[in-house]
Structure formats: structure tokens, C-alpha cells
Amino acid sequence: MNIIQSVEVMRQSTPLKKPFKTALRTVYKTESIIVRIQTNDGRVGWGEAPATIVITGDSLDSIHSAILHTFTPILIGKSLLAYERILQEIHQSMIGSSSAKAAVDMAVYDLVAQNCGLPLYQFLGGYKDQIETDFTVSVNSPKEMGEDAIRYVQEGFNVLKIKVGKDNLQEDIERIMEIRRCVGNSVRIRIDANQGWGVKDAIRTIRRMEDLGLDIELVEQPVKAFDIEGLKMVTDHVETPIMADESVFSPIQAFEVLKNRAADLINIKLMKSGGIFKAQIINQIAEEFGVACMMGSMIESRVAVTAAAHFAASKKNITRFDFDAPLMMLQDIVVGGVQYDGRVMTFPRAAGLGIVDVVHSQSVVGS
């Protein structure tokens, strides 16, 4: 019958190998809520939501509360054969809480794909059967960032995402110059300012990098998320492609950015969109505008990254992949799921997400 029987909510915390630093925050460990949804035929679907307060506004407590008190009553007793109705109700049941919605969404899609006997990426479209991730260089001194970049390239990564937007503009330029000097010209470099620049500063800095021949593939979210006019001004006044990230949570926001030609690319994240259900709409809108998307992630485990990777692989229009977070963790808490061979990510043949179990969860905080 595929009826949802139980919803279990757990908390996990795992240290990172090295602090993850951006213009917005410094992270020392992954902290997330793990969701386990079971149906009456014994199938289990997995989901995850990390606490990323400075971006989504969601804390561990708010995620837990939303799932336990708002979403669980909607889920219990529902048939997965009507998963469209379930996900519509989840999205309409409360404003915000995009991370909590994403955790439930990915667990529902996991179960639906299992019911169909297909890996999720095939259920959603099956465009690719493997993808390659970049690796992120945290914002530190130019010297330390150069050393980190060399290590990641030696580990096999040929696309680096460089965090900037902290301290001053000249140091940001020096950071990129040092990294380019260290890794040479064969490695692709992406820059993520995480809203750290003003509009005029962004234009001046990007133009300076262009003049220096630093060969930047794209610049992600150079200005404040709310400043769509400023984002458009940057896009219009530089040659380097500009990607919107924090400016786009919802399909409506994606439409506004695309309609105004405020960015050249869109970064989709399940924690912003509220899961695959809405992420598909964002990608489809972008594709109709002729704008490619990147699929990104927060600092999350292989549970959420597996779901995001399945979605990313299913769609032609998603051409870039930022799924390095699990590689930053000291422990891998996931059995099954997407696998890494250096930068190459492959999918299990099992139906759904292919996740067998999630271990090292610290405590059960609700059920």
C-alpha cells in the first residue's frame, strides 16, 4: 500500500578535517537533522537538513520542530502514490523552513523511486550516470589558500571554488593571484564572494582580475542577496559570468533574476529550494531562459549530498556540481549512497537514494 507509517528525527554532529571559512561564517563541524521515514511495507527513506542560520535562517531546533510538529502530521497515513499531494501540502503548511522541507522532500522521493524500482536519478530523468565535483578553498591568507589549492589539485580535483569577500579587496585579488600561481592555468577557478562585496567594489575587483588574466570561470553571488539591481549591474559591467546563489531560493525569485537578466547562471541548492520538488521548477525556468545551473550544497553529510547529486545527474541543464562537503568530514556517517572516486561521483544501482543506513547519529530528538 506504500503508506507512510513513521517519521523519525535524529541529530548528528561530525567534526570537519579543517575549518570551513567564508565571508559569512566559519564552520568547525557538520550539524544536521537526519530524517528517517518508514512505510508499512518496511521501506525506509532518508533525508537531511543542516543548520545554516546565516543563509537559510534554519537552526537545528527550528528544523526539528517543523518536521515533528508540522510535517509529521501531514505525512503519517499518506500514500506515496499521491506524492505530489504530499509535497504540495508540505510546502503550503508553513512559510520558510526550506531546510526542513528539503529533508522531508528527499526522503519522500527516496521512497517513491524505491517503489518504482529505480535509482532516483533515473526516476527523475537519468541524463547522466556520473558527475564530477569541484573542491572548495576556504578563505584564509593567500599563502595558506595557495597551499590548500596545491593539495586539492594533487588529490585529483581540476575545478576549485575559491571563497573570497572577507577582509579587503586587494587581499581577495592577492588570494586569486597566489592560487593561480600555485596551480597553473589548467585548473578551472570559480570565485564565491558570499555577498561580501559592494556593487562598485565587485565590478572593480572582477575587472582587475580580468585585466590580470586570472581566467576566472565565474563569480558567485558577489553582492547582497536582496540586491537584484546591484547583481544585474555587476553582470552588465563585467565579462566574467556571474552566478546567483543566495538571491535565488524560490522559483519566483529565479524568474525575477532571469527576467531581469541579473545573472548569467543560477546555483540551486535543496536547502534553499525546499527540496527536489521546487528545485525542478527552478531548473526548468532557467532552462527555458537558456541559463545553465549549478547544483550546490551546504556543509552537509552524504545523505543530503546524495539526494542533490541524484537530482543534478538527472537534468541536462545542470552543468556544474559543488558536492565536496562530505569529503571535508572526519567521519563518513552514511552506508550506501553516492560514492566518490576522487572528483568523480557515481551512483549505486539500488533503487531510490541507495542509502542503507546512517550511523553515528548523536541522539533521537523526536519521533
Question: Could you walk me through the main structural features you see in this protein, from its secondary elements to its overall organization?
Answer:
It is an enzyme of class 5 (isomerase). Belongs to the mandelate racemase/muconate lactonizing enzyme family. Its EC number is 5.1.1.-. Pfam families: MR_MLE_C, MR_MLE_N. With 367 residues, this protein is an alpha/beta fold. 39% of the residues lie in helices and 25% in strands. The strands form 4 sheets. The chain has an 8-stranded parallel sheet. α2 packs across α3, α6 packs parallel to α7 and α10 packs parallel to α12. The longest helix has 19 residues. The radius of gyration is 20 Å and the shape is globular.
Distance between the termini: 22 Å
Q: Biggest β-sheet: count, sense, barrel?
A: 8 strands, parallel
- List the uncertain runs: 363-367
Going by helix content, strand content and strand pairing, the class is: alpha/beta
Number of strands: 17
Strand residue content: 15-25%
- Report the order of strands and helices: EEEHHHHHEEHEHEHEHEHEHHEHEEEEEE
How large, in whole angstroms, is the Cα Rg?
A: 20 Å
SS element count, helices: 13
Q: What form results from the Cα inertia axes?
A: globular
**Helicity, as a percent range:** 25-40%
User: Oligomeric form of this entry?
Assistant: single chain
- How do the strands of the widest beta sheet line up side by side? 5-6-7-8-9-10-11-12
Mean pLDDT value: 95
Organism: Paenibacillus qinlingensis
Cofactor: Mg(2+)
Family: Belongs to the mandelate racemase/muconate lactonizing enzyme family.
Keywords: Isomerase, Magnesium, Metal-binding
